[in-house]
Amino acid sequence: MTLDLFVGGTLGAWALRNAPRPFVRQVVCLDDDLIALAAELGHDVFASSIRAPLLRAGSAALCVHYPLALDPGLIAGYEGRIWKLHPGLLPWGRGSYPVFWALWEGTPAGATLLEVSAEGLDEGPVVDAKRVAVLPSDTGGRLHERVQGAERELYQRWLPRLATGARPPATPQAPGGSCHTLEEFEFLRDEGRYEVPRGARERLARCLTFPGRSETPERSRR
Question: CA 222 to CA 86: how far, in whole Å?
Answer without folding.
Answer: 8
